Amino acid sequence: MIKIEKLHKSYPIGKDSLHVLKGIDLHIKEGEFVSIMGSSGSGKSTLLNIVGLLDVHDEGNYFLNGQLIKDMNEKKAALLRNKFLGFIFQSFNLISYKTALENVALPLYYKGISRKERLKTALDYLEKVGLKEWAEHLPNELSGGQKQRVAIARALVTKPKVVLADEPTGALDSTTTDSVMDLLKDINDEGMTVFVITHEEEVAEQTKRVVRLKDGLIISDEITAVGKSKAV
Amino acid sequence: MKFLFDSDSWQEIYGSIRKNKIRTGITIIGVLWGIFLLVVLLGAARGMENGFNKIFGDFATNSVFVWTQSTDTPFKGFQEGRRFRLTMNDIDVLKSEYADEIKLLAPRNQRNNLVVKDFKSGDFKVSGDYPILDQIQKKPLIYGRFLNENDILSSAKVTVISEEMYKQLFDKGEFPIGQYLKINSISYKVIGVYKRSSTVDIDGDTAYIPFTTFRKVYNSSDKVDWMMITANEGTDIEQMEKDILLTLKGLHKVHPEDERAFGSVNLGKEIGKVTGFLTGLQFLTWFVGIATLIAGVFAIGNILLITVKERTKEIGIRRALGATPKSVRQQIILESVFLTTIAGMIGIIFGSLVLFLIDTAFGQGEDAALINPTVDIPVIIIAFGTLVFLGTLIGLIPAHMATVVKPIEALREE
User: Fold this and answer.
1) All residues at 6 or more sequence positions from A84 whose CB lies less than 8 Å from its CB, including other chains
2) Which of A184, B30, B122, B166 could form a disulfide with B296 if both were Cys (CB 3.0 to 4.6 A apart)?
3) Using CA atoms, how far apart are residues A40 and A43, in angstroms rounded to an integer?
4) How many A/B residue pairs have CB atoms within 8 Å?
């Protein structure tokens, strides 16, 4: 699903440049549940942004769904994001003046689906995350856990191949963290590739594969206990 | 185009406007004020123009008046300061020589006289005229008729008096037609009463009598005090005026470069000055109006730029969810066009309302300063079209800014 070869990325900082990713090789197959661990500055967010086509890499190859990502213009990137990727952010990133339902329906709008169908599908997904009753509420009327579940519903509504989650539980307490992780597990069980970035061991433990990053390089890549038990 | 009729596009705009109500309101006022000024100023200018037209309305605007004064240059043995009079011969010569140019030529003789009706009397002007006077300066009649050819041919002792004279000389409710007045001890039958023009009126309260009658009664032989000439359509009136004066100078043995011998007024030229002023006024109106409009549109561009800056994160989210740069751009341009359109429409409505109020307050009655202050629909459409065009153009800047930001940078903003 995701294949990365010798990926390099650096950011210019004034006259110097900061070398963030120093040659990453990573292969994630369809249906995997992978977490990327690392302290801040390890390059994990940069990696996710490149995988999520929100940023472009400098060197190396990136294949998404077998397609080489190269010379992307914004339009192509937008279409691919809409088609293959679903995003979950640490700060939820819901649009404040839209209801939960409208937020969930937004990716479908950019897919060009009719309003009626859009809202129907969005409601189905809200039901899936257990927030059907909250459909008409604005984000500021929801708790953190509820917001993140709305965000997850939004990420799923286009039936993406890969769900990219950037510290999805970073702003949540332990109880809501568990409910969000359960939700991600359910998604994965349905066959979706889930790609989580975190710095919490408890979160990483619940995924099937943990890739640890340090200073822009992969230092370990192992199957977790959960992954092993599932494999068996 | 489908995008325009998509209820979602509008919902997005509604959402973003609702978020910044006050700022949007103030911005709208900028454009609203611009088009409002344009409409009101254009309307007022039109009202003034109509007012001027009304002032000259009773007159054929292509008229030239000619009279004699005294010479300022000795010529052919005559000393300077010689006084002389126009004659009927001049009239005949002019009529035949300028047959192509001259449409109407009215020779006139005038005196001031006591006009008596029974025991009432008043000092008024008495004017010997031809019926064509009515064509040069319209005399709206309240009673009876104006002078006609028969009156001229028979040198009839008939007169047409003004409404004021009628009120002064007759008892209230007395029917004037057929009654007799005494002017200079000679009885005249009243055949008409006219209403004086409320605007330009060179005669004042005058008793009009047939030219031929005047000649007999006042023994003016073939002398003529002055004349009114109107030109045919398409004649260069200024040239005609010069030519006529030159001919008259020849006829009266006046030096061709004598400036004082003949007095003349070219009504067309005088009106031209006023029209020039009006044109200037209209130009100024357009200038002020459009400048204000542009300022207003810039304000909208400015506000959208701020909005875009504020919404960077939101735009980033949308981009992450699959919004193409095109859809983001369209959204912002549509917002700009929408705001300018709304502002423009409100401005036009308010402007028309104010014009309506001006019309009610100053546009009615005899001495109205502004008559029928209106703006042509095509002018409005052009102004409106320009506005929408500028709105689109100015919207391109914030729209571009919105798409220049990379989604990753937009998302990073907290």
Assistant:
1) A64, A65, A160, A161, A162
2) B30
3) 7
4) 65
Q: Is the ipTM of this complex over 0.90?
A: no
At residue A159, what are phi and psi to the nearest 5 degrees?
50, 60
Which residues in A lie closer than 8 A to residue B326 (C-beta atoms)?
A: 75
Both tokens of residue A58?
């400098």
Query: Looking at the complex, does the CB of residue A83 fall below 8 Å from at least one CB of chain B?
Result: yes
Beta strands A162-166 and A85-88, pairing class: parallel
Question: Sign of the C-alpha dihedral, residues B7, B8, B9, B14?
Answer: positive
pLDDT > 70 fraction of chain B, expressed in percent and rounded: 93
- B244 HSE (CA, 13 A, CB side): 36
Alpha-carbon gap, residue B13 to B342, rounded angstroms = 13
Please choose, from the candidates B211, B194, B262, B250, the residue with its C-alpha nearest in 3D space to the C-alpha of residue B105.
B211
Please tell me the total number of residues recorded for chain B in this structure.
414
Q: What is the pLDDT of residues B145-196, one digit of tens each?
A: 888 888 888 888 899 988 888 888 888 888 888 888 888 888 889 999 988 8
A47: Cβ contacts below 8 Å, ≥ 6 apart: A7, A21, A24, A36, A197, A213
pLDDT at B369: 66
Distance CA A137, CA A139 (A): 6
Query: What tokens does B35 get?
Result: 């088009």
**What pTM, to 2 d.p., does this model score?**
0.64
- The CATH superfamily label for domain A29-56+72-231 reads P-loop containing nucleotide triphosphate hydrolases (3.40.50.300)
Tens-digit pLDDT profile for residues B214-235: 888 888 788 888 888 888 877 7
**CB contact (8 A) between residue B317 and residue A107:** no
Q: Give, in order, the Cα–Cα distances in Å from B278 to each of B67, B206, B281, B285.
A: 30, 33, 5, 10
Chain A residues lying within 8 Å of B19, measured CB to CB: 97
Angle between helices B325-362 and B267-310 (to 10 degrees): 140
Write the pLDDT tens digit of every residue in B13-64: 787 777 778 878 887 888 888 888 888 888 888 888 777 777 666 566 678 8
State pLDDT tens for residues B345-357: 898 898 888 888 8
B20 touching chain A per CB within 8 A: no
Nearest CB neighbour to B411, from listed A54, A106, A154: A54
Q: For residues B306, B311, B312 and B318, what is the CA-based torsion angle, rounded to 10 degrees?
A: -150
Q: Is B145 helix (H, G, I), strand (E, B) or coil?
A: coil
**Chain B residue with Cα closest to A50:** B408
